[in-house]
Amino acid sequence: MVEGGALRSEEFREFAKDHVTFLHVTTRIPGRKHDDLLQKKGGRGFPYFCMLDAEGSVIAQHAGDRTAEGFRKTAAAARRFVDLRTRAAAGDREAKIDFCLLRGQLGQIAFAEVEAELKPLGELSEEQTKVYRGLEADAMVKETLEIEVGKRFAAMLDEGLVPQSEEAASRFWHHIQVYAEATKDARLLRRYLEWARERFRDQPQARPFLESLAKRVEELERKG
Amino acid sequence: MRTSALLLALSALAAADELQERLDAKLKKDFVANAAWVLDYDEALARAKQEGKLVFAYFTRSYSP
């Protein structure tokens, strides 16, 4: 447990001096202010650590070791982010490029946006090009998995070809869902919803997922 | 009918009391004294602005262990 370990250490006490350490406790006490802050700051479970700026924006979510050393790394990444953001806003071309690439690396903006933002900024350095190409490759993997595979599976579904083994079926339907969401295909997403309802019928913990999925399907149908 | 509504209100109060006790117990843990934790969100942001620092946020819960 982090509370009995890292957070009680001398190293953490030192680390804490360089930051504002904010402790948020979800209590479930009715009417308590900010009791739902975890979700608002991108947390999906406990414990959750992140770095915030003075406006309350999440600059970095901690994903590494829950040690003082691990927290230092996340804090350093957050500082780099803020530093680049400040320099980019002041018009520094190099910082603009690096900041754009960093947001791409953090998944805050899609590759298409990185591409568009970098276009007017001119030539990239060797190091920047390396990062850019890596992001391009990431996008191609994503595109292939989301679109190419999904398109094929959707065609199979239209032909009435539905896998029967548990393993193939769950992969098949996963890609159907991803494709339907990416292309905003209401009809296809409804087919997935029907499958998911049947598949998770006996699992009460899946209910919130199914409800939010149903909501998305209805939204898409309204727009369509 | 009125009695059951009263009982319901009383049990909600008792539950809230228990949740408050759990929060108090959480805040007495050793790790809390190891750093100058700010417990209020708005105060944390105000101090970050004032001191030019970033906020290191730790989210935990008291309603269950």
Q: Helix and strand layout, with pairings?
A:
The complex is a heterodimer of chains A (224) and B (65).
Chain A: H1 10-17, E1 20-26, H2 37-40, E2 48-52, E3 58-61, H3 68-89, H4 93-105, H5 111-118, H6 126-158, H7 166-183, H8 186-199, H9 207-223
Antiparallel strand pairs in A: 2-3
Chain B: H1 2-27, H2 30-33, H3 41-51, E1 55-61
Descriptive report:
The complex is a heterodimer of chains A (about 220) and B (about 60). By secondary structure, chain A is mainly alpha-helical. Helices cover about 60% and strands about 5% of the residues of chain A. Chain A has nine helices and three strands. Chain A has a two-stranded antiparallel ribbon with strand order 2-3. In chain A, a hairpin with a 5-residue loop joins strand 2 and strand 3. Chain B has about 60 residues and is mainly α. Helices cover about 65% and strands about 10% of the residues of chain B. Chain B contains three helices and one strand. The mean pLDDT of chain B is about 90.
In short:
The complex is a heterodimer of chains A (224) and B (65). Helices cover 61% and strands 7% of the residues of chain A. With 224 residues, chain A is mainly alpha-helical.
User: What percentage of residues of chain A falls in helices of 4 or more residues?
Assistant: 55-70%
Overall 3D form of chain A: globular
Report the strand count of chain A.
3
Q: What integer value in Å does the Rg of chain A equal? A: 22 Å
| Overall helicity of chain B | 55-70%
Taking the alpha carbons of the first and last residues of chain B, their distance comes to 36 Å
Mean pLDDT over the residues of chain A:
95
Task: Work out the oligomeric state of the chains in this entry.
Answer: heterodimer
Q: Which structural class is indicated by helix and strand composition of chain A?
A: mainly alpha
- How big a fraction of the residues of chain A is strand? 5-15%
Q: Structural class per helix/strand content of chain B? A: mainly alpha
- Mean pLDDT across all residues of chain B, rounded? 90
Gap between N and C termini of chain A: 49 Å
> Which sequence of SSEs, written as H and E, runs from N to C of chain B?
HHHE
